Every structure is written in structure tokens, then in C-alpha cells.
Amino acid sequence: MDHRELIENVRSAIAASKDGVAALCLVRLDRLAQINELIGYESAGLLLEEFKDRLQSMVRRNDALLVMDAHKMVLIIHGLANEQHLALAANKLERLFDTPIEVINDQVKVSVHAGFVMAGNATAEDLLRRAESALRQAQQSRRAWVVADSSTALGEGMDWAFSQEMESALAEGEFTLFHQPKCHAAYHTIVGAEALIRWHSAKHGIVPPDQFIPCAERSGLIAPLSWFVLKAALAQCRTWPQDVGVAVNIAPVLLDGEELSQVTRDALAIFDVAPSRLTLEVTEGGIARNRDHAFALLTAMRERGVRVSIDDFGTGYSSFSHFRDIPADELKIDRSFVSRMRKSPADARIVKSIIDLAHNFALKVVAEGVEDEETADHLQHLGCDYLQGYWLAKPMSGPDFGSWLGRKLGPNRATD
Fold first, then answer.
1. Hey, which end of the chain has fewer CB within 10 Å, N or C?
2. Span 186-209, pLDDT tens digits
3. What is the mean pLDDT of residues 76-105?
């Protein structure tokens, strides 16, 4: 169902309320990618039918169940007098999935998250937006359901129209990748590049990442946007020499689930890129959200050969107990420390301490934000392993990076 049709159906279902307050509930089946992997797509299809059937059992006369996509449903509930009644409905929804779903010979225990919102006089668009926000809060807080309150009002920040534009832009190919190279600190040989997403909007022109990335995180588009970056980066990496890799930034919320593992494995196989050429850049804060799960996920990725980098290191709240076991291959020193090294002895000491600490744990170190030769020389003297920044090169489009790489490596090594 497309968004216009969904909004119109929500509007009609809300208008059908005759006896009390209507509420909207957005329900999402969790870990569909993992379910597909475990029991196969055919069995997963049967499971999705049971998911819908169980939700249908909550629907009374005048209520409505609308399909948003395969694993996300919109439930319109009528006759609710207040939010206490809504909480009772939420508890009933939670109990629906206490019993595992039987699929052929498998007993599959599934979990769902839900976002509830009282209809009031809000528009259908606003109700869906607020329900999405409540659903996201439930996922992040690991609660089964959350009721949207006044803090999810339209003016809070998530722009529903803008998120729709982003979704269309992704489908229409308005997003592209730029690459910023990374070199060996001592030999200045090119070892890889960081993939950076750019949006050239037909309506808005060039939209800065610091504007559309937060919106993508709020609206739930960060996952499809990230999968686009991962796949496009690997598609381009396969045309480079075998010893040149690519780094992709991973949003914190993607460390909470299982889809990252599946998408990464599939993309590496599709584009026939060695896992060791891919680096996933995660932040300290992203790992800290759900430390045990993130550690297990990243450990499994490294066991497959994928490299892990801790981005913006030094700006989070790492403890030695966490650092001792952190599943990573390298640290990236935040540019805020690197850029002040020449003028601030304190920042220079911080950089040296991070380099020494990382090396003591057999981790490589990348300094980002290197903008001049003096800083590059200082970092080499301190033992930094890799450098990234305007001193080496600004981010370049895919074709421009390919040409630049060819000039740097020479005609015999531009591609393998």
C-alpha cells in the first residue's frame, strides 16, 4: 500500500468512529530478516499470515486493520474513553504473541513492538508520524509498546513530508556516494576510503547530511539508506585494487537488531568483495546502547573477516573494562583533537595517549581531520597508523575518486 492510499484509509477509518475516542496503533514484527534466514522465505510468508491473523482477532465491529507493509500493520481502535483503556488494548496486543507461531514443523517465538496514539483532532498524517515516533521509542527502550504523548507533537522535529521526499529520492536515485581516501601515515600509500552519502535533491538542491541523516533516523529510513550506502560502496570497491578497502558508517540503531549481519553477508557475496576489504565504522555511543548485543554482533562480523572501526573515539564515555574486550580492529581519533594538535599541547597529549592505548591492545589508529603536512608529520612521529583529511584529499564522487586513485597508484594498479 502506498502512502497516499494508507493516509486516506486511516482518515476514513478514524472518521467512522461513532462511540468514543479512536486510537491508532502501529505494530511491527521484529527481526523479519533473521526469521527469513532461519526458516526460509516460504515459511516466513506463512508466519506473516499468522501475524496478520492474530492482529485481526483484535478487530471488532467498526475497528480496522490496515497493511502498511509485510511486517508492519496499522490498527484503528474505536470506543476508547481514555488512555487507560488504550493501555488495556496494548496489554491485550502484547499477550497475542506470548504463544509461539507454529509454521509447518517449527515453533517460532516472535516479538512485536507497537506505538499507540489517541486520535483526537489530529490529521491522519500526524497520527502516523506520532505512532512511528512512539514505535521507535518502544524499540529503543526495549519496551513492548509506547503511547505517544504531547512531546511527539508536530513541531518537535520529525518532518513527515521531508521523510516522504527522502523515500522518493532513494527510489529515484538522488542519493550518491562520495569517497574520502585514507593513507598509510609513514608511506602515504592509499589503503582505502570512507564512503560518504550525498543527496542532490531535485527540489532542494544539495541537502547537507547533518539535515537529512537525523530525519532518516527519526523516520525509520536510516536502515534502507544505510543498505544503499553499503551496497553501493561494495559495488565501487570491487573496481579498485585488492589492497584498497572501503569504510561504511553504521547508525547506532542498526546495532540493536540482526539485519546488519544478513545484509552485509549478502552484499559481500553479491559483489564478490573479500570481507577484509570492508570496514564498518561504529561509534562508542552506538555500542553503549546495548553493549552485550553490539559486542556479540560485531564479534561475529569480525569472525567473518569484516573489519570494525570505532569512529570519533575520545568523544564518548569508554571505560577500561569495556575497552579491554571491545570487538574492533582500529580506532578513529576524532577530528576535534587532531585539528587542535598544533596549538594545544593538551590535545596533542590526548592524541598520543589514544595512539599508545590502542597499540597496547593491538588496534590500528586512524586520525581524521588532517588538514596540513605539519599535522601529518606530527601524527607519524607519534606512531599513528593511517591518516584521513583534506591534506590528502577532499571527498570525491565515485568517478572522480577512481581517476584520482588511478593517478596515485599508476596505470598498472588502478584496477586488478
1. C
2. 999 999 999 999 999 888 888 888
3. 82
Q: Which long-range contacts (CB under 8 A, 24 or more apart) does 399-405 make?
A: 401/178, 401/179, 401/181, 401/193, 401/236, 402/236, 402/239, 402/240, 404/181, 405/181, 405/190, 405/240, 405/241, 405/244
DSSP symbols for 24-62: EEEEEES-HHHHHHHH-HHHHHHHHHHHHHHHHTT--TT
Are 139 and 42 in contact, with CB atoms under 8 Å apart? no
What radius of gyration, in Å, describes the C-alpha atoms of the chain? 24
Determine contact, residues 327/347, Cβ cutoff 8 Å. Answer: no
- Single-letter amino acid code for the residue at 318: S
In DSSP terms, 105 is beta-bridged to: none
pLDDT in tens, 302-344: 999 999 999 877 655 455 556 677 899 999 998 888 988 888 8
Say if residues 127 and 119 touch (Cβ distance below 8 Å): yes
Residue 130 contacts residue 148 (beta carbons within 8 Å): yes
Q: What is the C-alpha to C-alpha distance for residues 197 and 233, in angstroms, rounded to an integer?
A: 10
What's the rounded Cα separation, in Å, for the pair 27 and 48? Answer: 13
Query: Model-level pTM?
Result: 0.66
- Identity of the residue numbered 279: T
How buried is residue 395: exposed, middle or buried, by Cβ count under 10 Å (0-12/13-18/19+)? middle
Please name the residue that has the C-alpha cell 546502547. Answer: 289
Helix (H) or strand (E) holding 330: strand 330-333
Taking the C-alpha atoms of residue 50 and residue 73, their distance in angstroms, rounded to an integer, is: 13
Phi/psi region, residue 413 (left: phi>0; alpha: psi -120 to 50; beta: rest), is alpha
Q: Sort 96 into a burial class: Cβ within 10 Å, 0-12 / 13-18 / 19+.
A: middle
State mean pLDDT over 396-410: 90
Q: Which strand (E) or helix (H) includes residue 94?
A: helix 83-96
Rounded CA-CA distance 234/278 in Å is 8
Other beta carbons within 10 angstroms of residue 22's beta carbon come to 23
Q: Are 129 and 121 in contact (CB under 8 A)?
A: no
Q: How far is CA 395 from CA 10, 110, 194, 200, 411, in A?
A: 44, 43, 9, 15, 22
